[in-house]
Structure formats: structure tokens, C-alpha cells
Design a protein that fits this description.
Elements: E1 2-5, E2 13-17, E3 30-32, E4 35-38, E5 45-53, E6 56-58, E7 66-69, E8 72-79
Antiparallel strand pairs: 1-4, 2-5, 3-4, 5-6, 5-8, 7-8
């Protein structure tokens, strides 16, 4: 489950990561009140990702873990 809070004025929010080859448009989140959320099926293991808010890339503000992927610093999760 991906959740981004605090971007209630955004027009579009997506998640780009290793699970979708960092595609900026293939996994759009749904807006619920002032939160953006979506659930993705991902393979177990290392996962790096970023949020794409109105075409601007940001790391997950609620996840302090990061990893450098292809020269970019991204948010990091280990999926069991």
C-alpha cells in the first residue's frame, strides 16, 4: 500500500519504482480526501520508489530509508 499525505492540491500522483521500471504514469494513485493511496502487487525483495506529484519527483516523506538507484536517491523498502 502506498500512501502520500499533504498534497491535497495535486492534480495527479503516481508511484514510480523498480516494480514498474520507474514509469511515471503506469501506477497512478487515487485521491481520498487530502490523501493519495494505491495498492500494488510487488515481488518480495528490495524495492526502491519515488512519488511523482504533478510530474515532480519526491521521496516518500514518511520513509527515512533511501537507496541510490541509477544515480538517483530513492525511497527504499524491503518487501517480505
Amino acid at each position: 500500500m502506498f500512501l502520500l499525505e499533504g498534497f491535497g492540491d495535486a492534480r495527479e500522483v503516481a508511484v514510480a519504482g523498480t516494480f514498474n521500471s520507474f514509469s511515471r504514469k503506469s501506477f497512478l494513485l487515487k485521491k481520498v480526501d487530502d490523501k493519495w493511496m494505491g495498492e500494488a502487487e510487488v515481488e518480495p525483495g528490495d524495492l526502491s520508489y519515488v512519488f511523482v506529484v504533478d510530474n515532480r519527483i519526491i521521496k516518500d516523506p514518511k520513509n527515512p530509508k533511501t537507496v541510490t538507484t541509477n544515480g538517483n536517491e530513492n525511497s527504499y523498502l524491503f518487501v517480505k
